[in-house]
Each structure stands twice: as structure tokens, then as C-alpha cells.
């Protein structure tokens, strides 16, 4: 059936199976599901990244910001750096500051001289407009002009119950306190309080230093130095509360003509020595003359601090001008330039900052109680008296807030401004030590004091570097 010329092709079962298996393996490799899934996942991730890349960058940035904010906002634990020790000189416990606390104190604002500015009418301008440096060097205290105010003479009540023009060269005594009134203040009755606001050519008023046994004792050397001051910048730290910040930004003229005086008690002296700040043999630390006060009249250190704050005219009887700076701040401007900008230029006798948050005494009282700055019952006694006297709910002074923030006080020592400060001090002693509650009341009652410069908050910020209170002052026991 087949001839010899035919070609026969043999087919092997093994060969056929091998090729079949090869083709099968190749097809399985092309259709591998894992490879296809990975490819799809990569494309899906790429699409999501393109869509949400901004969010992915923002999320870690926000987390970092929250972490840094929590570190900044965390209050230091004073217990880690503050301890009570026995002072062999004072004979009582005191606050001592360990070196780690000194190294970690907030000094971000220290020694800053950059001006504080604000935008007015679309133009940025400096809050405190000082004279040029050349003009400041040639600036001098104006000659004493004839005083024509409604109060010609202020007489201070003494322990003899008769008025006298006091010389504070004898200031000795022992702290005695049953009520807030004591031998330093005298016991002012409500009738005397009412009469003290009556304006007369010659008026008598309680104004501290009532008795030689009332306390606030100053050495004769320091008293002599203070009596020679014509212009003074003052501060105080009682109970070891704050450090001393050197004034900056002054002209050579101010260095020659201005006294810088810091009032300390013995607890502060000991605490500062432990922190490495020792009073020199000449009585100075840097620019500051350190006046050490003994026998403070109040157990409340806040009240003791009101004496140099409000009664500069009694401590510096021959000074014509004074600038008060709270211990939590560093004074950073030329004193004579500040007097020119805030008093002389506007013909004012008192310069003080507006309150930054409120203008009503009654709203401020609520804030004081809420922040535990005073006891609710003593605040209520004060407000009840003020309501009875007719103090308005929202008092403004020449369109500005009458509520003041008194960490900086710039003033000329005139009979009327001295009377104002005496009345203010008496209100603080009678009621609460929160002086912002009594300032608008005294301003309202003493209606004849009109030439006051209630400067804005940004001006106060230009005057000082705010450091904040470092430690709680130790009360006297």
C-alpha cells in the first residue's frame, strides 16, 4: 500500500508531552495572579499619593507642632529647683534657688532693645516715640515751674494725731499686725477716709510712716543717698521672689542724673547671694543701688511692695520725678526720654498703662476672684463699698480705660499727684492688695486730677522687657 519513496514521520509520545508541558508552564507564568495584584496595588498607591500628598506632608508637621507647643506650655515644677532653708541671719525659713533653676529661667526677652510697633491708619509706627539719641544726650530736667494746682500742700498724719510735713530719716520699728491697719499705716476711720478726698489748699491724709515704731527701717547711709535723688527709677523684691534685671537703653546723661534704687529685704539678699548676686561694698549691683529694708510692716509681701511702688514721694523727699518698674520686668528705655515722652510733652503729672483686657472694675473683680488673686469675701467688701459710693459700672477717662495695669508708673511729684498716691495706698491697705481695683475709684473720687496720661498697652511693652515672676515670694510669719 505504501511505496519506498514515501517519507515517514515518527511521532514520539514523550516529545509531545514535553512540549505540552513547556507550553503549559509558559502560560502559567504569564497569568501569575500575584504579579498582577502587585502591579495593581502600586498603581493604586500612586494614585492615592498624587491625590493626598499635601495631607501626608501636613500630618507629621502638625504632630511636630503640637509636640513643641506642649513643651512650651508646660509649666516648670518649682519644687524641682526651689527649696526652703534656714537663714542664720534672719532666723527664719527662706527660699533658696539652686543653680539648675538659675540656668533654666526664662530669659528670652532679656536685654532686648527692639522697639514695639503698631499699625495706625495703615502705617506701622513705634508705640513709644522717643527723641533721637543726640537729643536725649542733651535732655535735662525742666526747671521747677510755679505750681498752680488745686492742692498746694499735703500734710501727713502721724502717731501724735496731728498733721506734720514728714521727714523719713527716722524709720524704725517692729511689725505688728492685727488687722491690715497697723503702726505703719495708722488706723484710718471711714470718716477720715471720706474727708481725705475733699480737695483743699492744705489737706491732711494718712500716707504710711505713721509711727516711728511702724517698721520699714532703712539705714542712715541709704536714707542719705535717697535724699539726694532728683529723678529716680525704682523697683523692689521682698521675700526672694524675683531676680534683679539691669536697666538698659539709657543715655550717658541719664546715667549721670538718675538714681536706680532696688528695695530688698533680708530674705531676698540671702536668696540672691546664693544665686551669685552679691551687693558690692559701695552698696550697688550694676546700676542698681540696693536698699535693704528691715522690719517690714505687713506679713503680706504684696502689701509691703506697695510702699516703694506708691509712696516714692515719701521715700525720696527731694525727688521731682520717679518711674516705678515691677520686679518682673527689665526697664529698657532712657528715663529722661520716657519722662519727656509721657509727661513733659503732654503736660501730664502721671503716666500709667491702660488695662489690656478690661475697663470695668466689677469685671476685673470677677477675674481676680476666678484667678485666686484675692479672697472672694474681701473683694465683695470692696465692691459693696464702691457701689455704695456710686462708682459707675464702666468708668472711662477721657475716652480711655480708667482700669490701669500698674507695672510701670511714671509721675511728677506734685502735691496733687502725691495726694492721689496716698489715697490709692490707703485703699489698697483697707481692702485688697489688687491695686487695679482701687485705681479707678480714687481717680473717680479725686475729680480734680485730670492731667493723666493713660498710655496704651503697646507703650508699656516698649518700656520694659517682661520676664514674668520667677518664684512665689515667701510671706513673713
Notable traits:
globular; 17 helices; 477 residues; disordered N terminus; alpha/beta; three-stranded mixed beta sheet; 18% strand
Description:
The structure is a single chain. The chain is α/β, with parallel strands linked by helices and 477 residues long. 39% of the residues lie in helices and 18% in strands. The chain is built from 17 helices and 19 strands. An 8-stranded mixed β-sheet has the order 10-11-9-8-12-17-14-18, with helices on both faces. It has a 3-stranded mixed β-sheet with strand order 6-5-7. Helix 13 runs antiparallel to helix 14 and helix 13 runs antiparallel to helix 16. It starts with 12 loop residues before the first helix and ends in an 11-residue tail after the last strand.
Biggest pleated sheet:
8 strands, mixed
Helical fraction equals: 25-40%
Please state the structural category.
alpha/beta
Number of helices: 17
Q: What's the shape?
A: globular
Task: Give the radius of gyration.
Answer: 37 Å
Q: Provide the low-confidence segments as ranges.
A: 1-29, 74-105, 163-178
Mean pLDDT: 82
Our measurement of the CA-to-CA distance between the termini, rounded to an integer number of angstroms, reads: 139 Å
Q: How many strands in all? A: 19
Strand content: 15-25%
**For the largest beta sheet, what order do the strands appear in spatially?**
10-11-9-8-12-17-14-18
Amino acid at each position: 500500500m505504501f511505496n519506498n519513496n514515501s517519507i515517514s514521520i515518527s511521532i514520539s509520545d514523550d516529545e509531545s508531552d514535553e512540549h505540552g508541558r513547556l507550553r503549559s508552564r509558559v502560560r502559567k507564568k504569564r497569568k501569575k495572579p500575584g504579579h498582577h495584584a502587585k502591579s495593581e496595588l502600586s498603581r493604586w498607591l500612586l494614585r492615592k499619593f498624587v491625590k493626598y500628598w499635601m495631607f501626608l506632608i501636613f500630618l507629621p508637621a502638625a504632630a511636630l507642632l503640637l509636640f513643641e507647643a506642649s513643651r512650651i506650655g508646660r509649666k516648670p515644677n518649682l519644687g524641682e529647683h526651689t527649696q526652703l532653708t534656714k537663714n542664720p541671719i534672719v532666723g527664719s525659713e527662706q527660699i533658696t534657688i539652686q543653680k539648675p533653676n538659675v540656668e533654666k529661667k526664662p530669659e528670652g526677652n532679656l536685654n532686648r532693645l527692639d522697639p514695639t510697633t503698631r499699625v495706625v491708619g495703615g502705617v506701622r509706627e513705634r508705640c513709644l516715640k522717643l527723641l533721637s539719641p543726640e537729643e536725649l544726650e542733651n535732655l535735662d530736667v525742666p526747671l521747677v515751674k510755679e505750681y498752680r494746682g488745686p492742692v498746694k500742700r499735703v500734710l501727713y498724719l502721724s502717731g501724735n494725731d496731728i498733721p506734720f510735713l514728714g521727714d523719713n530719716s527716722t524709720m524704725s520699728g517692729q511689725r505688728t499686725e492685727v488687722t491690715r491697719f497697723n503702726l505703719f499705716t495708722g488706723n484710718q476711720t471711714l470718716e477720715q477716709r471720706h474727708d481725705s478726698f475733699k480737695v483743699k489748699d492744705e489737706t491732711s491724709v494718712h500716707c504710711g510712716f505713721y509711727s516711728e515704731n511702724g517698721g520699714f527701717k532703712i539705714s542712715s547711709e541709704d536714707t542719705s543717698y535717697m535724699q539726694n535723688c532728683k529723678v529716680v527709677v525704682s523697683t523692689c523684691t521682698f521675700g526672694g521672689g524675683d531676680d534683679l534685671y539691669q536697666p538698659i537703653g539709657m543715655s550717658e546723661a541719664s546715667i549721670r542724673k538718675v538714681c536706680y534704687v532696688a528695695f530688698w529685704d533680708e530674705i531676698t539678699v540671702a536668696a540672691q547671694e546664693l544665686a551669685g548676686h552679691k551687693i558690692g561694698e559701695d552698696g550697688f549691683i550694676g546700676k542698681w543701688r540696693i536698699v535693704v529694708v528691715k522690719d517690714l510692716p505687713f506679713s503680706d509681701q504684696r502689701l509691703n511692695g506697695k510702699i516703694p511702688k506708691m509712696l516714692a514721694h515719701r521715700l525720696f523727699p527731694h525727688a521731682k520725678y520717679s518711674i516705678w518698674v515691677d520686679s518682673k520686668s527689665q526697664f529698657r528705655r532712657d528715663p529722661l526720654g520716657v519722662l519727656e515722652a509721657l509727661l513733659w510733652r503732654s503736660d501730664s503729672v502721671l503716666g500709667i498703662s491702660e488695662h489690656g483686657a478690661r475697663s470695668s472694675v466689677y469685671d476685673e473683680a470677677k477675674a481676680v476672684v476666678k484667678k485666686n488673686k484675692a479672697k472672694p469675701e474681701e473683694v465683695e467688701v470692696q465692691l459693696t463699698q464702691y457701689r455704695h459710693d456710686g462708682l459707675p459700672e464702666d468708668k472711662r477717662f477721657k475716652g480711655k480705660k480708667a482700669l490701669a495695669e500698674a507695672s510701670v508708673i511714671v509721675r511728677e511729684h506734685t502735691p496733687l499727684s502725691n495726694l492721689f498716691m496716698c489715697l490709692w495706698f490707703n485703699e489698697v491697705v483697707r481692702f485688697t492688695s489688687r491695686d487695679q481695683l482701687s485705681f479707678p475709684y480714687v481717680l473717680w473720687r479725686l475729680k480734680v486730677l485730670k492731667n493723666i496720661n493713660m498710655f496704651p498697652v503697646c507703650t508699656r511693652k516698649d518700656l520694659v522687657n517682661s520676664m514674668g515672676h520667677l518664684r512665689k515670694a515667701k510671706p513673713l510669719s
